[in-house]
Amino acid sequence: xxxxxxxxxxxxxxxxxxxxxxxxxxxxxxxxxxxxxxxxxxxxxxxxxxxxxxxxxxxxxxxxxxxxxxxxxxxxxxxxxxxxxxxxxxxxxxxxxxxxxxxxxxxxxxxxxxxxxxxxxxxxxxxxxxxxxxxxxxxxxxxxxxxxxxxxxxxxxxxxxxxxxxxxxxxxxxxxxxxxxxxxxxxxxxxxxxxxxxxxxxxxxxxxxxxxxxxxxxxxxxxxxx
Length: 226
Description:
It is built from seven helices and two strands; from the N terminus they run αββαααααα. It is mainly alpha-helical.
């Protein structure tokens, strides 16, 4: 019998993909909040980790793995289409080429850094969430959500910034940027936690699912095991 996909899972999966693609596009703008310089992607990227927490909590690591790979594929697809669009000749009368190219013409090392950091950070987030749920017997969701985010976001920053900006930005500045990103993204998780808790409770009630990942394979490439 074919497995069915519930409406809540489908909607969260769609939102997860949209957040990732949006974050990549917003990364091209640098903003300053309260004297702290960050990229505009910070506005939406932490939401993907919150969704990751929800999926891992309700449906388990295997479904989170499926969504992570779908997010990677869609991100890669949009990046490739953007690079193709940049390479195509612009109409002579169109004056927006420089701005379009700035947003979509990402340097190869930025693309590689972004995709690598996303995969490692997202899988670590889902893995920590899954393992902590087993050990706690499903208790202490708040603690699990925060710690899984801290681990995932730390790994994401440790990979992205050195790969993307190593040799371009001084290492002292890179380290500061990494620390700021981890702290702000984790704080984002803490502030929105009351909403996350209610969303998870509602989904469990509507979907009737609360998976514990006992005896599963945590191999990240085992997509068929869903």
